[in-house]
Amino acid sequence: MFWFLTSLVYAGDAQAPDSHLRVSQSLVVYAQERCEADSVVLDTLGLAWSVDLQPGQMLYWSGDACRQDPVLHLSVFEGGKFSGRYSLHPVMRVERWGLVATHPATRGQDLQTEKALVPVWTARAGTEQGEPIATRSISAGEPVNVNNAAFGAERLAGDPVLISVTRGSVSLVTDGELMADAAVGQRVQVKNLQSGQVVEGVLGPDGRVSIH
User: Fold this and answer.
1) What is the DSSP string of 153-208?
2) pLDDT for 112-137, tens place per residue?
3) How many CB atoms lie within 10 A of CB 122?
4) Cβ-based burial of 78 (10 A; exposed 0-12, middle 13-18, buried ≥19)
5) Within 10 Å of residue 52's Cβ, how many Cβ atoms?
6) Using CA atoms, how far apart are residues 106 and 29, in angstroms rounded to an integer?
7) Which portions of the chain are predicted below pLDDT 70?
8) Which residues, listed in sequence order, are joined to residue 155 by a DSSP beta bridge?
9) What's CA 138's distance to the chain center, in Å?
């Protein structure tokens, strides 16, 4: 469980906002910090019970605000003592800069992308390198991530390849299937479709996996 103390604590200021606004503001702060979000838009607070906050009370949040349909919990403390706990089912857009497809693509096609704000649960993690290739059909405007694209790959898992085994002056070529997404020059595992055996080799630009 993740606990978070919001910094929005008001100490008796006559201009302090009402309880609903305080909870809304603190929830936005919580979602930004918890999800490392670039944008948080709260549409509906989703609080079933009214909350009557007093000046000086502190708000603690728990729950995963980064989920698509989050259920969160707000605990209220005053003077270090527990005062109340509330469950919320907010409707909000928690977004981060990520990639979206600018044109439709089918499996195996290079993806054309642009940066846009996308829901945090669809945002690219940022650790992938290279240009993306679609691993399934993708529509224009759809967020691009590891669930629908391979980054830096030139061949996809399941693609047919030729396995070339060389022993001295003798070469044997047979049909194979890639076990994972791969780039040219990379060591890959490939399944021999004739024997069912999985072997390792180097993927060449012509789609051959060479084993020496």
Assistant:
1) -SB-TT-EEEEEEEETTEEEEEEEEESS-B-TT-EEEEEETTT--EEEEEE-TTSE
2) 999 999 999 887 655 456 788 888 89
3) 18
4) middle
5) 10
6) 39
7) 1-17, 48-50, 124-129
8) 182
9) 16
CA-based R_g, the chain, Å: 26
| The pair of three-digit structure tokens given for residue 84, joined into one six-digit string | 């109340």
Q: For the structural domain made of 96-151, what CATH number should be given? A: 3.90.1210.10
Q: Give the pLDDT confidence score for residue 15 in this predicted structure.
A: 42
Instruction: Provide the 3-class DSSP secondary structure of residue 147.
Output: coil
Amino acid present at 178: L
Q: Yes or no: say if 6 and 32 are a contact pair by the CB < 8 Å rule.
A: no
Fold classified for 160-211: SH3 type barrels. (2.30.30)
